[in-house]
Design a protein that fits this description.
This protein has 77 residues and is mainly alpha-helical. Helix content is 52%, strand content 8%. It has a two-stranded antiparallel ribbon. β1 (65-67) and β2 form a beta hairpin.
Length: 77
């Protein structure tokens, strides 16, 4: 999948499959209801903090930033 652009809901489904967790279980680990979590995904309203928290409960590392043509990076934390 590499550099292809993918919708957040698709990315969340793949994350769930690869981490062997349902989206409902990820929601519970975030202390959110599955319904509220799914709505946030569908609306595309996940924040950088949300994504960091999702990475934490799924055992992943979340990286976000901008990469310039010369390779310089600005990382969003």
């Amino acid at each position: 999948m590499g550099d292809c652009i993918m919708r957040v809901d698709t990315q969340m489904k793949i994350l769930g499959i690869k981490s062997d967790l349902s989206l409902s279980e990820i929601a519970r680990r975030l202390n959110k209801t599955p319904q509220a979590f799914n709505q946030k995904i569908k609306r595309g309203s996940l924040t950088i903090d949300d994504l960091n928290d999702i990475a934490l409960v799924t055992g992943c590392k979340f990286e976000c930033g901008f990469v310039f043509p010369d390779g310089d990076r600005i990382t969003i934390e």
